[in-house]
Amino acid sequence: MPPDITPAAPADLPAILALLAASKLPRARIENHVASTLVARQDSGVGGTAALELYGDAALLRSVAVATDLRGRGLGAALTFAALDLARRRGVRTVYLLTETAAQFFPKFGFRAITRAEVEPGVLASPEFTTVCPKTAVVMVKQM
Predict the structure, then answer these.
(1) Short-list 90, 109, 2, 6, CA closest to 52
(2) Bridge partners of residue 53, in order along the sequence
């Protein structure tokens, strides 16, 4: 049975934080973006998550994480597609992301690598770019 991907609720935050910690992904300020976070509900728990930080008509896709025991089943792809659909519905025209480990995962969704100099100023000023992710992280973009 496919997972039920729904908007996150504040009560989901502990499970989201646990998923991010287990995946070694930044947890900084995710609580500020619960309204634009999705969760995949599996067996009455949270099995995956994906979040958007919204900056006008641009967004930062972050926190795409899947529970270890659910990996390899397409859940990360389903969450990414759902997050991109959410971005479209919110009027986003450009989606950025930073990754240290998944640069080969995102091109199938239309993302391509770019330099930090090509990132819109509002997104570039986000904590993910300024303090959380290392300068060695790959920056990617998708035009919607």
Answers:
(1) 90
(2) 60
Closest listed residue to residue 96, CA positions, set 125, 66, 65: 125
Position 1 scores a pLDDT of 57
| Alpha-carbon distance values, 75 to 16, 39, 47, 65, 137 (Å) | 15, 10, 9, 9, 23
Task: Say how many C-beta atoms besides its own lie within 10 A of residue 6's C-beta.
Answer: 13
CA 124 to chain centre: 16
Structure tokens at 112: 């391509």
Structure tokens, 103: 């640069």
Average pLDDT, the chain: 93
Cα Rg, the chain, nearest whole Å:
14
Model confidence band, residue 43 (pLDDT cutoffs 50, 70, 90):
confident
3-state secondary structure of 104: coil
